[in-house]
Write a structure and sequence with these properties.
about 290 residues; alpha+beta; Glutaredoxin; 2 domains; three-stranded mixed sheet; about 25% strand
Length: about 290
């Protein structure tokens, strides 16, 4: 399993899945698993008794906005929506060539059902949140902490704790003095005092340098501690790496890797046109 942080260091290399990580798949038997899908419980051994295209993707994309930069740094993590729609658009062609299609994601079934309904996907998508197929087929996954769609702003520079703050006294619209906390100053950048010619009048702008100190607060146990609030980092979530293979007669026949969202359906269609033994559909197959 490869792991990616939600905020990787700038320029840090992101590990990719190597061909050696998936070369064991060709010829592997499809496990005897029945998993929930958007079309109801799906028996994988029955599904792959005839030729089937199975593609794995990390999560259903919402569309209409760009995922976070941290998520985009993960190789081949973006493109679930165009991939799913391309397979849907070419589904009849693939069925004509002897293969049906299903997708697999670790996303909750409710999210996948909404995804299928929103985008008109014409084939079932399996929900595998327990990664049963990962364990059975030794499939690659990765971890990501945080919301893949969240905007992560650049961190602000830390304030020098030794630099004083400035309180600026100004004359408000009603003629009364008001105080505003101004920008931090340094020894080389001090504000100059301005005063009026009339003795005893309030200066338009008076400056006063003060040091801001953290106020200790007493917790429920009676111990003094600094009043600071830190948010716990988000827990990492596991996702499937993008991967596509063709299975038939209950075994993996051909692995397409790397998996390209817009090219897989075309390349699989070309591969299916090569003369080879084709396992026919089962007569009572409800998906055809």
């Amino acid at each position: 399993m490869s792991t990616h942080e939600s905020t990787p260091p700038s320029g840090a290399p992101v590990p990719e899945v190597e061909a050696a990580d998936i070369e064991h798949l060709t010829g592997m038997a499809i496990p005897a698993l029945t998993l929930e899908s958007t079309g109801g419980p799906l028996d994988l051994q029955f599904w792959t008794s005839s030729r089937s295209v199975i593609f794995f993707f990390p999560r259903p994309e919402h569309g209409g906005h760009t995922p976070s930069l941290a998520w985009q740094q993960i190789p081949n993590s973006v493109g679930s929506l165009p991939q799913a729609k391309t397979f849907s658009d070419r589904l009849q062609e693939l069925i004509y060539l002897g293969a049906r299609v299903c997708g697999v994601s670790s996303a909750p079934l409710a999210d996948l059902e909404a995804f299928v309904k929103r985008h008109g996907i014409l084939y079932p998508i399996i929900s595998d949140p327990e990664f049963k197929l990962r364990d059975a087929l030794k499939l690659p996954t990765f971890e990501f902490a945080g919301d893949p769609d969240a905007f992560v702003p650049e961190p602000e520079p830390e304030r020098d704790p030794t630099a004083p703050a400035v309180i600026i006294t100004e004359i408000g619209p009603d003629g009364r003095p008001i105080q505003i906390i101004g920008p931090t100053t340094t020894a080389d950048d001090e504000l100059e005092e301005e005063s009026t010619d009339e003795p005893g009048s309030i200066a338009e702008t008076d400056t006063l340098e003060i040091d801001i100190e953290e106020t200790p607060v007493e917790d429920e146990t009676g111990d003094d501690e600094t009043a600071t609030e830190e948010l716990a980092p988000p827990e990492p979530v596991e996702y499937y790496h993008r991967l596509t293979f063709v299975a038939g007669a209950g075994k993996v026949e051909k692995v397409f890797f790397p998996s390209y969202p817009m090219r897989d359906a075309h390349e699989i269609a070309q591969w299916l046109q090569i003369p080879r033994e084709i396992t026919p559909f089962v007569a009572d197959d409800p998906w055809v």
